[in-house]
Protein 1
Amino acid sequence: MTLPANPPVSVLLVDDHAVVRQGLKLFLGLDPLIEVVGEAANGEEALAEAERLIPDVVIMDLMMPVMDGITATRHLRRRLPETEVIALTSTLEEHKVNGAIEAGAISYMLKDASSDTLAEAIHAAARGEVRLHPEAARRLVRDFRGGEMRETLTPKETIVLQLIAHGYSNKDIARDQDVSEATVKTHVSRLLSKLGLDSRTQAALYALKHGIASLDGVEV
């Protein structure tokens, strides 16, 4: 038996409907490089389970009792910054889309997404790459309030920003630019600071809003 070259991406499923969690668990189980390590029925349970399991990715419903998914995402990203969150919901309401991204979700997907699309988004999130539902991306670009450029980016920072918007991970950028991942991390940190942004997702949206990258070039 040939073992996978890389360990599977560990995933925590968060949804207040057990049948939804069960369905997700069944079809994600078809991917040998994804392992569902736990489940939670609301935001409070999600935080407790995430701190216990330290998953790579959390699939987060947004509309739940006790604690909603946006609030849970905000707390989770503060406590476990290495764990990425994919918002998986049934709505494209602007305040939900904006709220999830501002809270720190790396991706925004709808529950009618195909199993292959969601699995790809999970692998992308584990690599630090953005995946957005096309309509969510359009609304975020339209509504994102990044303002004018606060500081001038260096040419290298501009290239890094373009590559982030095109879904490149730090490893991909390092390979593309023939530099170390540590150097890329420094560029990312500096450009986020200059632009007053908190995450790679916000950076991607900023690049789209200001014409640094095109929507057609972003994986959604």
Protein 2
Amino acid sequence: MTAKRRIGNNGPEVSAIGLGCMGMSFAYGQRDDEGSAATLRRALDIGVTHFDTADMYGYGHNEELIGRTIGDRRDEYVLATKFANRGELDAQGDLVRRWVDSSPQWAREALEDSLRRLRTDRIDLYYMHRRSPDVPIEDTVAAMADFVKQGKVRFIGLSEVSPATLRAAHAVFPITAVQMEYSLFTRFVEDEMLATCRELGVGLVAYSPVGRGWLTGKITSPADLAADDFRRTVPRFAEENFAQNMALVRAVREVADELGATPAQAALAWLLAQGDDVLPIPGTKRVPYLEENMAAADLVLTPDQLHRLTAAVPPGAVAGERYAPAGMSTVNR
């Protein structure tokens, strides 16, 4: 039976490990719609009930893929999507510019577009993906609260905000989840955000829980990344940081080998052990990796193994930022 967790104190119950769908449409090389569709269907078949997408993943493509592939099984899963990252495309479908817009006006338009693409009349968990610093968070959350009153959204969430923003938002309307990057490779949420979530009863949904692929152990050089893989722009994958970060992955692998698990499974088991309110959503577009990730929910770590995994990647040991400067400018607002 698939392990379950609740998102926040009063949110929906979902599989302990969810499925992040971004890579099916965006950022990680060429799309494979047929393979991605098979992965979505297989996820439902093996008990995944938490699917995470956003309107910016392929600028509509990912939501459309989910809608046409598993829209007819809508009652079997909790569906999360996001708004506020906008993009302008040219006639060839290439991105011309991107910006953040968390205004109430755009939230209303974005929601209707997402509902249409996802072929549904409700979003279970609707996130503000990023925050415009010139838009009061109170205004954005008030608009999102209206979506709940209208029955178009069940629960609302925020992504990559500061603890202060979370508190201000939660004072307007209960926030069910905060989505943050969190893994052995990215630990900053342990400084203040995780404690704030626990104080307020907010679930922490952990994206990139295997370090954007680092903790799979399958990336051995920058050349392993496709030419159009966005990680080529991420400092952690830069040539000058590669050797230091590879050494950390080897340390994780040593513990994983003793467990009879893959490094990715060990990393996910470590994250699950951080608390029942932490819900990882590893992303993949391939069935074998999906099945590998889901098996991590059955991996029980002893206190010693947990300690050794934590020690394998001490906070601050990872070389390079998690985004390029433009991306870093949009987080922790």
Protein 3
Amino acid sequence: MYQNLAILAAFLLVYSTFAGAFESRLLSGPLLFLLFGLLLGPAGLGVLELRVDKEGLRTLAELTLALVLFSDAANADLGVLRAHEGLPLRLLLIGLPLTILGGWLVGLWLLPEVPPLELAVLATLLAPTDAALGKAVVSNPLVPTPVREGLNVESGLNDGICVPVLLLFLALIAEEQLNAPLLLAFRLLAGQLGIGLLVGLLLPLLAWGLQRLSRRENWQIPRWSQLVLPGLALLCFATAQVLGGSGFIAAFSGGLFSGYLFRQDKQRLLEAGEGFSEALSIFTWIVFGALVAPKASSIVSVEVWLYAIASLTVIRVVPVLVSLAGMRLDLETRLFIGWFGPRGLATIVFAVLILDEHLQRSNTLISTAIATVVLSVVLHGLSATPWARRLGARVR
């Protein structure tokens, strides 16, 4: 245990110290985390001997996603949704549904042995994008502002939007297996959504009221104030789960509402929460690289890899081109936006969450998710900086 702790702590220290140097090169952070897990894990040198069972992996994934959903939602500038011809709004309301539909249709062709509803689950868990993999894009001032803000807002909100869609398909599968009335599936979904939304609205309101009281009485201490929003994120998630709702819906809606309530102090209060989510994300990527990714080479088929390639190209790019129709953007810029839809943390977490579901082809779904994320980490990590520089130079 202590050997693992020493290795992970050393990596975290080195990376956090030289993060600027690492992320200015071709290798992105998640790609380095993945390679680190592969190299030192059981499939590589065997130095990092992680004993994480399925329940432990699920807990790590759930806590990571809850913090990421809350932070991304709280950070989202909803005013940007209407700016620049509504670019992010087009990506979310047109591109995202078309991506899920396209993923389902391609799955019917490439993976005919997978039941249609399970293909819908696969298409949904592969739909969210991860801005961390394209950080060289969304943080690069050479890239036009509408493109950067559009991709950033899209990646911050699409994982939260995909949660109820994923819950719906899982509820329909459960209803089909139990031969229960279809209405029962929608009642289950409505209950999870309703409780999640209610928790996500009430707890931030309560926290905001306590924060105002503390400020008025001069009871606040800066070093402890930084823990308000991280604590609120975990409270929203855990409370909704206890009450039978969706903790992810609670975290996402709670983040959106908190971003509005705490808007004056939002950036200061979110710093610690973003640090927690970054640290958990690093460990999630390392565990994924060490324990999950190596299985891809032995359990996936040619059809799965073809689907992974299609997921990163035609399934993503065509819906983006359709959603951007009529905008004053040249073809290369549209292709740039379509290509930089990297799959990462949300896909990993969604894949982990369906491990406990009684799906007929769960191995195929997990394998496809692994293949897609591995390809995305490599291809988007290597192409982000060069294409961003090219686009920036051409625009100038």
